[in-house]
Amino acid sequence: MPISIEIVSPEKLLVSQSVDMVVIPGSEGDLGVLPEHSPMITLLRGGEVILYEGERATARYFVTGGFAEITGERVTVLADTAEPSSALNHAAGERQLQEATKELSDAEKAGQTDRLVALMEKVQVAQAIVDVTATAH
Amino acid sequence: MPSLKPLRNRINSVKSTQKITSAMKMVAASKLRRAQAQAEAAQPYAERMERMLRALATAMADQPAGAAPALLAGTGRDQKHLVVSVTGDRGLAGGFNVNSGRAARNLVRKLMGEGKQVKVLAIGRKGRDYLRREFAGQMVDNPMPGSRKRPEFGDAELISGIVQDMVAKGEVDVVTLVYNHFRGVMSQVPTELRLVPMTPEKLDDAPKDADQASYEFEPEEDEILARLLPRALSIQIFRAMLDNEAGFFAAQMTAMDGATRNAGDMIKRLTLTYNRARQANITSELVEIISGAEAV
């Protein structure tokens, strides 16, 4: 029995199809979702949503964060931004990571504690881009 | 006898005006199609966001009052208002900008009449200029660059950030959005939408199916809600901006269509006058020649 997956960004509906399993990057760790999963709402971190048909990963999408709603029949990913992982660029990710790390340490030195959480997330997203692009598919 | 030259000039000038208006109509029509497609594409996210919000609000309902964040439940007061007005940046769109601007103005006046403190945030240059005339001291700066392009989600997030800031600092209790709802090409309706506190009716009315209450949350509800609410706010603003964009081009198309038709009528009338005057000239010349010939 398949499970339907939708990936939606504020600007458009990216994916709407049926697959056998979906792996989503939950804020507390990756979640592999099979049909009949118990209903759940979770935050996402920067990472890949991977669609599986049988044992094979058929599509990968990179999201920079967002939310996911899981019920027995469907997974709805509300991504902050989403794009196919193949569109990512390793070098750009490295640059982004450097910038974000610098920003974070600057903010730490300046004692801007209210910005730290947001900046840490930025670093995490950049790190995820680097990781994803490093293991070339 | 009216002379012909000024008439001919007039006809030519109306003709070139007509060319411009008809070109603008065509441009507006194609931009309208694009804006409509963009508004449609944003629909799914908003719908699913609402569904998720409902599930969370239901889960939060069991918790003691006061636990819900201000964006959802409000600050419990109703004294300081913020009116966010959305209009177009450009004119030549009939009553489009004025209708929305006037709706915002009336709302501000009404609230002030009730003794509330009101601030105004204007998205769109036309509305800003219009509202600044009357409420110069109450305007909140909008850092959004005068948009030369289609609305982007980032713009909506910028505005949403300002609103969240103001709510967090206790500068406002209630936030209302006034924009032109795009009902169809011929009709855009000025609409008020309550942003903060987020319209609770909508959340309560919805059918609570059994599985909704049984969601697991990861991390805790309030943590997700704290992330989801700002997002939901941005989305509502984004939708209003998209609606506004589509409505603007629809209104512009209609206005330019009317202008083109009026120019056509005018050309017809002027051409008639021109031909009559020319005929009168010819006739009188003929009369002169004939009577001259007879005199010989």
Automatic annotation (TrEMBL), chain A:
Domain of life, source organism: Bacteria
Subcellular location: Cell membrane; Endomembrane system
Domain ATP synthase F1 complex delta/epsilon subunit N-terminal: 4-82
One Pfam short name: ATP-synt_DE_N
InterPro entries xref list: ATP_synth_F1_dsu/esu, ATP_synth_F1_dsu/esu_N, ATPsynth_dsu/esu_N
Keywords for this protein: ATP synthesis, Cell membrane, CF(1), Hydrogen ion transport, Ion transport, Membrane, Transport
Predominant cellular place of this UniProt entry's protein: membrane
GO-annotated cellular components: endomembrane system; plasma membrane; proton-transporting ATP synthase complex
Keyword Cell membrane among record annotations: yes
Membrane disposition: Peripheral membrane protein
GO molecular function: ATP binding; proton-transporting ATP synthase activity, rotational mechanism
Cited CDD domains: F1-ATPase_delta
UniProt similarity note: Belongs to the ATPase epsilon chain family.
Subunit text: F-type ATPases have 2 components, CF(1) - the catalytic core - and CF(0) - the membrane proton channel. CF(1) has five subunits: alpha(3), beta(3), gamma(1), delta(1), epsilon(1). CF(0) has three main subunits: a, b and c.
Role summary: Produces ATP from ADP in the presence of a proton gradient across the membrane.
Protein name stated in the entry: ATP synthase epsilon chain
Lineage: Bacteria, Pseudomonadati, Pseudomonadota, Alphaproteobacteria, Acetobacterales
UniProtKB/TrEMBL annotation, chain B:
GO molecular function: ATP binding; proton-transporting ATP synthase activity, rotational mechanism
Membrane topology, from the record: Peripheral membrane protein
Source organism superkingdom: Bacteria
Span of the signal peptide: none
GO cellular component annotations of the record: plasma membrane; proton-transporting ATP synthase complex
Chief subcellular location: membrane
GO biological process, one term: proton motive force-driven plasma membrane ATP synthesis
Entry keyword annotation includes Ion transport: yes
Family: Belongs to the ATPase gamma chain family.
The name this protein goes by in its record: ATP synthase gamma chain
Species, as recorded: Acidisoma cellulosilyticum
